[in-house]
Amino acid sequence: MPENHNKLLQNLATLHNNGQLGHAYIFFGDPNTGKAVAATKLAAYLETGVWPEDEDNEESRRPLTDTQVFSPDDKGVIGIDAARSIKAFLSEKPFIGARRTAIIDRAQALTPEAQNALLKVAEEPPISALLILVMPDPELLWPTLKSRFQKIY
After folding, report:
1. What secondary structure, in 3-state letters, does the chain show?
2. Could you tell me the pTM of the whole model?
3. 91 near 118, Cβ under 8 Å?
4. What is the pLDDT of residue 58?
5. Residue 147: per-residue pLDDT
6. Which listed residue, 55, 64, 126, 133, has the most CB atoms within 10 A of its CB?
7. Phi first, then psi: what are they for 111, rounded to 5°?
8. pLDDT tens-digit series, residues 83-97
């Protein structure tokens, strides 16, 4: 993972530790630059308190229970049913960490109906929710949805 990713993740961890982490982010940039990996590493840190590459720590090797990754289906879309699943997942209380994290990989595949359903989550997020969209360009989203997220290149 590029060094700038590690610095960015450390900054997000500091925000979390200070109670200042936002509830919605878009990780965007060129393809194959580790955006989804960075999102998953952040989710692991939020749940376990350690970074996944810390092989000496047993917590870093266990499966995540407060994180789900959503991707396009066989048709290449993320539809309304997935958006409802995301909404339901985020509305539950976390089991281990302080947050439940939903990562939407290739979020440019969100259908208009799915974007509309996620708008409600982005506007009025549950207190323990973190929603991360991973995509090449935030401009591919509806402006009303995009405006609810902090963008990280």
Report:
1. CCHHHHHHHHHHHHHHHCCCCCCEEEEECCCCCCHHHHHHHHHHHHHHCCCCCCCCCHHHHCCCCCEEEECCCCCCCECHHHHHHHHHHHHCCCCCCCCEEEEEECHHHECHHHHHHHHHHHHCCCCCEEEEEEECCHHHCCHHHHCCCEEEC
2. 0.92
3. no
4. 60
5. 96
6. 133
7. -75, 165
8. 999 999 999 999 998
What is the distance between the alpha carbons of residues 73 and 82, in angstroms, rounded to a whole number?
A: 9
Q: Two tokens at 5?
A: 């990713």
Residue length of the chain: 153
Q: Which two tokens stand for residue 138?
A: 């935030």
> Which residue carries 């878009």 as its tokens?
26
Residue identified by tokens 């991360």 is 132
- Residue 118 pLDDT level (bands cut at 50, 70, 90): very high
Question: Residue range 27-45: average pLDDT?
Answer: 94
Radius of gyration for the alpha carbons in the chain, expressed in angstroms and rounded = 15
d(CA 131, CA 70): 11
Distances (CA, A) of 124 to 23, 33, 53, 119, 120: 10, 31, 33, 9, 6
